[in-house]
Amino acid sequence: MGYIWIIGLHVTAVTVWIAGMSVAAILISALDPATAAEPGPARLLRAAARWDRRVTSPAMGLAWILGITLVVVGGWGFEPWLVAKVIIVTALSALHGKLAAGLRRLGEAAPESGVRTVSPLLRFSPLAVIAGAIAIVTLVVVKPY
Ligand code: HEM
């Protein structure tokens, strides 16, 4: 398969991954943990968790595999734009793990005392997803250094 085809598939996988992460991030920052396990919100959380398992996570895996394939096939090395890109991609992948766990956790019935919570920092996750995507795409397209 030609290099340009691998880029096409890579960008498609990345788009599906970032779209799914945006949905998870918006849901988690919008829902109140105190009422998230009630039937309405819990249904949304279950649907989002299912989408994450079946679509977003495989797309993330594919984006990684195709990204690494591009590095090998394209003969890229430790160019600064690529190193910076992989650092941000790794941070986004970790954030994806936190969001996926948050979707499952918020939708579960609360324990006897109190409610289930997720890190309050996840309130900023939609912003982090967008900022990360802007930084990555700019780095790989402009290759400023
Ligand atoms: C898993 C780590 C990743 C690696 C190792 C990787 C590596 C690469 C490489 C080597 C290219 C080809 C660059 C060229 O030939 O000019 C590329 C293209 C691209 N990557 Fe990634 N990538 C990864 C993840 C991502 C993510 C998460 C995004 C977006 C959020 C992304 C967006 C893009 C875009 C838009 C292009 C096309 C650039 C162009 O054709 O000008 N990549 N990637």
From TrEMBL:
Keyword Metal-binding in annotation: yes
Q: Which GO terms describe its biological process?
A: protoporphyrinogen IX biosynthetic process
**Any single Gene Ontology cellular-component annotation:** plasma membrane
* A single GO molecular function term of this UniProt record: protoporphyrinogen oxidase activity
Entry note: cofactor: Binds 1 heme b (iron(II)-protoporphyrin IX) group per subunit.
Q: Which cofactors does the annotated protein need, by name?
A: heme b
Membrane topology summary: Multi-pass membrane protein
Please give the family membership noted in the entry: Belongs to the HemJ family.
Which named protein is this? Protoporphyrinogen IX oxidase
